[in-house]
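LAB NOTEBOOK - FOLDING QUEUE
OPERATOR: T.R.
BATCH SIZE: 2
PURPOSE: Compare the predicted structure-token outputs for two unrelated chains run back to back under identical settings.
PRIORITY: normal
REVIEWER: second-year student, initials M.K.

ITEM 1
FIELD SEQUENCE / FIELD STRUCTURE:
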Amino acid sequence: MFFFILRRLLISIPILLASSFVMFWLVTISGDPLAEFRQSTDPNRETTMATISRLLELDKPYAERYVDWFTGLFSGDFGLNRDGQEVSTLLWQAAGTTFRLVILATIISILLGIGVGIITAVRQYSAIDYTSTFAAFLFFSLPVFWLAVMLKEYGAIEFNNYLENPGISTRGLVILTVIAAVFGAGLAGGSRQRRLVAGGGLAAVSAIGLAIIEATDWMINPGISVPVLIVLSVGVGVLAAATYAPFSVRRVVGAGVAAAVVGLLVSQVLFSSWLDDMSWSRMFILLVLALATGAGVGALVGGEIDRRPAVQAGVSAAFGVGVLVVIDEFISAWSPGRTIGTIGPRTPNFEGNFWERLVDLAGHQILPSLALTLIGFATFMRFTRASMLETLNSDYVRTAKAKGLPPTQVIMRHAFRTALIPVMTVVTISFAGIIEGAVITETVFGWSGMGQLFIEGLREVDPYPVMGFLVITSLSIVVLNAIADILYAYLDPRIRR
């Protein structure tokens, strides 16, 4: 495995070298940085042209300019723009903003697309399959700039008006209950009676939950109470255990539930002060402690025979409980008002604690990330569905079903692992499309990221900012392709040979 990884990384080096040479040549011949000054009558024209020529090294041959620029990359020097500013400084500031937007949108679209793709493949030709397929084709065909503008109008302006005095009307309660019923029936599948029971049960739970939310003014003072948090934690533990073993294996179920409960108690008792005064470093430490606690509880409860699935269930349950605790703290810091931002990545000069700043960042990021997520979701969902349908009809999957393995294990541990291989290819290819969409999205929502740097470089015929954008994008795509190759080998050991 080590030599396979090394081989894939070494192959990436000549690809980056060749692509940088071609891109530098294309950017160099794409325009004349001095064109606007050649017809100028400004008495300082010659001085200005000489200054720009010196900054951009226009007086040197192409090969020498490329060598100087390429060798400077190893020391973090991306050259100077036409105003004499270091491109590296501008690029790293812009890259932090852009990757904050792109990475979150990519992760959400992958998780959402793969999850819905699995469900639609398992429930082929059901109502949820038809609805999801229609939505995927709809989102895939929408221009990203139009979608961003619509989200800005109705997802920010109109929704902010609603958030100033939130509530659930009777009409809204009925609509949401009907949607829950349709979703539950489509997710259950099977006979008509089974679908009616599942749809009616989920509709009843949704109606009761929405009525409680409205009666308790939860949307004005949000938060998860301790009893509800305990119930949800136990549910997370059971769900984590079901992923790795059937319910008949009590040690694994006990490990999942025990890890969830222990994780919740530790977070609420021992680290309550950290939750009130949170930071990114403390959140990382808590994540490591949660995973270690889940692994320890799983190993202790699982015993010798069921240790491996018990540890996996414990780790998954502890992580899930950690997510619940973070969500609780996050929504508790939210207050009614015009929360959804439309301009920029954050509110200027905003002060508050960690959770309040996080709410502010999320309010500004939700719409641009949603615009990119919907476009990526369509691609990942369709490819996952097609790959899962092919895998579910394989002989080894039918054999696993015939052996009596639980459906969850058959789908997640046998079918999904093989189906994930072609999806990984789509993920790496789609990353470039998401960055391209981010250029437009940043313009619509007023984010000063790599997209704005790229557009300004093209408009002003400024080659080095453009090259900086292309280098970061190309490097990201090549690295993701290398990671995809490594994941291929992990998912299917035969690929290593």
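ITEM 2
FIELD SEQUENCE / FIELD STRUCTURE:
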Amino acid sequence: MNDAMPIGTDLLVLAGHTAAGKPTLAAHLAKVLGGEIISADSRQVYRGMDLGTGKDLVDYRIGDFTVPYHLIDILPAGQRYSLYDFQRDFQTVYQDIHSRGKLPLLCGGTGLYTESVLKGYFLPDAPVDPEFRLSLAKQSDGELTELLKSMVPLHNQSDTTDRERLLRALEIARNAPFREHPVASVFPMKAQVFILFFDAESRRKRITERLSQRLESGMIEEVQALLKTVKPEDLMYYGLEYKYLTLYCIGKISYEEMFNSLNTAIHQFAKRQMTWFRGMERRGIPVHWIPGELPLNEKLDLILTS
């Protein structure tokens, strides 16, 4: 393992809001430290969902060198991937990287995934329960949200924005209540946590510009291709880009409505991400804040000397 990081560091974490430039910084850190990237993104696990999830895999190539990465493109679109699945896969990859004397670098914007690693959340798998779902059929989303709050701490607000997510969260909470608990020998670990961020005005500008670029690069065509094998309602499950672009592709909304609604939704999502990461710090996780407007070499220096 490279000596640039403090002795005893088990994991380097790079998180931040969407469009902050995490992949570029993570790749250069991994190259300098001889590390490997583990994705902490709940949607980048799916093949064929590239522009919509912001994979930016080109950023993992630095000259002739490609930084090794994990938990990206491991499932076909249309399947479901849970926190339980992530915990299981993270442990396997983490232990493999360490066994080869490399430094794991967890990179992504899914706050729940990141915090589950840092605090050792334990969430066993829960099977789909048709009878339980049927018993909830007549309850409103608001009523189901209150039920979920009564069962578990509501760390992941995105579970309440989609009925399918809400039902799944209730199934999991009913099967095995959410709690903090060290998992196997991996937790607790000594981690260094860095949050990459831009001020609100710069963040909004970057998000809008990136959305335009992704649309010009073929994000609509990506969704059209996915719709050949994935049902519209299943594709919309995967979040903002896939929800609004699917509605546009099936003729439910205009291009202008799609762009404006999606742009606003991504801004709101980025704000929630920052709220989550500030909350992580309040919940006792030491965090180093890295201003996104700094040149790359200065960001690297800040991290490597922290």
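REVIEWER COMMENT (ITEM 2): The chain has twelve helices and twelve strands.
FOLLOW-UP: none requested
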